[in-house]
Amino acid sequence: MDEQSNQRKEQPFAIERILDANLDRAREGLRIVEEWCRFGLNDTQLAEKCKQMRQEIASWHSSELRLARDTLEDVGTGLSHPQEETRSSVEQILQANLCRTQEAMRVLEEYGKLYKSGMGEAFKQMRYQVYIMESTLLTSRRRQQLKDTRLYLVTSPCEQLFSIVEAALKGGLTLVQYRDKNTDDIVRLANAQKLRQLCRDYGALFIMNDRVDLALAVDADGVHLGQQDLPIAVARQILGPQRIIGRSTTNPQEMEQAIAQGADYIGVGPVYETPTKAGKAAAGLEYVRHAVKHAPIPWFAIGGINLFNVKDVIDAGAERVAVVRAIMQAEDPTRVTQVFLSQLMKK
């Protein structure tokens, strides 16, 4: 009798029960991810990858392992955690089930070494595949949400920062940038963490202005860079491929450079003069018309846009706009957000 058989004999059915439970857990987690890839993202490749892995897992799920199942005597069936009871976004569902799958595969990798030759290595390789899928899926989700976004709020410092942002999120806002040039880093970090959580609660993307380090620290969805900030290539090296990088542009040359350098989106403006960009001449609607013809990536018209002039910007061809004062100084940010979105959705 070989060493593996001896070990199994000493602990009858324990290894088989562990493997059975985690084979089920891995397949269940993958199936939940697969359904979103199929119906939420319409991504054939990702859905097919999930299906292939589920089938490979099933090939290891022998009748011997299934017969070892003893649900009535399983002390873990009644264990739960409050975080498992609620989900506030699709992202949380995907993240929870990807982690569930990865953890199950790690268990299968280790205990599989005691059960059958090649099982440990097989699940090690599959676990790496799930890590890659997680990165791809998160990247895909962020970029699809960016593409679908019509209204972008760039914050300005104020005492009611959080209540204003939350009011706009209640109105349907799906993209927020935290912009604060002068506050101390310790305060900026705390504010960014709270805003990031607000955005997560409402299923919105959260972008950090300028600061790549703070974007990483608070797990932001990305960073927005001005012309004098880090080069896009350096920011990408630090942030990795999953996060969004935006760049401000004020003329066609800056637009071409940002696109060539790999920006995920660009700001186009300032369309009108604005105190946010003091001393900069307005680029005007002509630059908006240029972006319509020459920008292959998502872009947001920005600079002095409000409810009184947004129709002119839309008529010039803009599908997406970014605003600051129009929402940050509004008496009813929820209502203003809804009116902006209704105008933009008409296009």
TrEMBL record:
| UniProt cross-references to Pfam families, sorted A to Z | ThiD2, TMP-TENI
Q: Quote the record's cofactor note.
A: Binds 1 Mg(2+) ion per subunit.
User: What EC number is given for this enzyme?
Assistant: 2.5.1.3
Keywords (alphabetical) are: Magnesium, Metal-binding, Thiamine biosynthesis, Transferase
Q: Which residues bind Mg(2+)?
A: D210, D229
- Describe the location of the Thiamine phosphate synthase/TenI domain by residue ranges: 151-327
Keyword Transmembrane attached: no
Keyword Metal-binding in record: yes
Q: Report which residue ranges the record marks as coiled coil.
A: none
Q: Could you say which cofactors this protein requires?
A: Mg(2+)
Q: Name one GO cellular component term.
A: cytoplasm
Domain ThiD2: residue ranges:
17-135
Q: In its UniProt record, which GO terms are filed under biological process?
A: thiamine biosynthetic process; thiamine diphosphate biosynthetic process
Which is one GO molecular function term here?
thiamine-phosphate diphosphorylase activity
Give the family per the record.
Answer: Belongs to the thiamine-phosphate synthase family.
**Described function:** Condenses 4-methyl-5-(beta-hydroxyethyl)thiazole monophosphate (THZ-P) and 2-methyl-4-amino-5-hydroxymethyl pyrimidine pyrophosphate (HMP-PP) to form thiamine monophosphate (TMP).
* Name the UniProt record assigns to this protein: Thiamine-phosphate synthase
Q: Which organism is it from?
A: Hydrococcus rivularis NIES-593
Gene encoding the protein: thiE
